[in-house]
Amino acid sequence: MKSFIPINENGLAMILARTCCRSFNPKKAINDQIIELILKAGQAAPSAKNRQPYYFLIIKNKLCLSKIAQASYIGRRRQFADWDRKKTEIMIKGNSYLNSNDAIILQAPVTIIAFRKSDLNYQEAQPNELNIKEEQSVANACYSMLLAAWSLGIGSAWLCSPLYIKDELKAILGKYGVKWQKNWQPRTMIPLGYPLRELTKPKRKSLEEIFQNIN
Ligand SMILES: Cc1cc2nc3c(=O)[nH]c(=O)nc-3n(C[C@H](O)[C@H](O)[C@H](O)COP(=O)(O)O)c2cc1C
Fold first, then answer.
1. Higher confidence at residue 38 or residue 100?
2. Which residue's CA is the nearest one to ligand 1's atom 31?
3. What residue segments make up the domains of the chain, in order of their start?
4. How far apart are CA 56 and CA 96, in angstroms?
5. pLDDT of residue 136
6. Any signal peptide, and if so, which residues (predicted)?
């Protein structure tokens, strides 16, 4: 097997075009083989010392997702309670959880909740460094899944509300038979589904703003 496959123009175009999708066709399911491929892409991402400090829940149950969307709405409000009210309203969008960005998990046929799964046996001289590396490793895996989904024509998004609702998630998921582990820390949820409409990628900063050469 070839150990290195140079990226071709299509691969690069795919990376450049990927964008978050926030409206999904609720009628078009994603089959389990595709979900497996997406998970494999997550695993293929680099992780510090190859420890793969993550765990994923693949949720299709709409009642469960609706409870998570409601908890997210409340959690975001709680998290941003000290903020300027107007800013919070704009960010959370509207006065019902159904209008919030998090409610897209009700449209998407599948949502992945990504956890950081800390390696409790692993010690590092600087515990904070270990923290950072585990966070980076989880994010790498998630981005890899976003790219894989995109390459398969599947839209995805990154919703950070799990950061704010750890206790609620634990309670909700417990009702669906999930045995919460003490080393789990919810990090993001990733709805997956076929896009309902054409997507527009938000503009990026100019390249000049993000790099300099040192020759
Ligand atoms: C750490 C992180 C947190 C994010 N949180 C949210 C979120 O809570 N809700 C949301 O709609 N998008 C969220 N996003 C998606 C960003 O808004 C999006 O990636 C960014 O605007 C660039 O757009 P693009 O991904 O379509 O290129 C998040 C992305 C990252 C990496």
1. 38
2. 158
3. 43-197
4. 28
5. 98
6. none
Task: Read off the amino acid at residue 135.
Answer: E
How many angstroms does the Cα of residue 92 sit away from the middle of ligand 1? Answer: 13
Per-residue b/e over 173-187, b at no fewer than 16 CB within 10 Å?
A: beeeebeeeeebbbb
Which residues contact ligand 1 via a Cβ below 6 A? 19-20, 101, 157-160, 201-202
> CATH assignment of 43-197, given 3.30.310.50, 3.40.109.10, 3.40.50.300, 3.40.980.10?
3.40.109.10
Q: What are the residues facing 114 on neighbouring strands?
A: 56, 188
Q: Is the pLDDT of residue 6 over 90?
A: no
Task: Return the closest-CA partner of residue 75 out of 104, 111, 101, 110.
Answer: 101
**Distance of CA 20 from the midpoint of ligand 1 (Å):** 7
